[in-house]
Amino acid sequence: MRTHAESVHEQFDPQGQAYLSSAVHAQGPELAYAERLVAQTLPATATALDVGCGAGHLSFRLCRLLSRVVALDPSAGMLATVAREAAARGLQSLATHQGSVESLPFADETYDLVATRYSAHHWSRMDAALAQMRRVTRAGGVLLLIDSLAPEEPLIDTHLQAIELLRDRSHVRNRSPSEWQRLLAAAGFEIVEHQRWPTRIDFASWIERMRTTTERVAAIRALQLMAPLEVQQALALEPDGSFVLHTGLFWARRAG
Ligand SMILES: C[S@@+](CC[C@H](N)C(=O)[O-])C[C@H]1O[C@@H](n2cnc3c(N)ncnc32)[C@H](O)[C@@H]1O
Question: Is 52 touching ligand 1 by the criterion CB < 6 Å?
Answer without folding.
Answer: yes
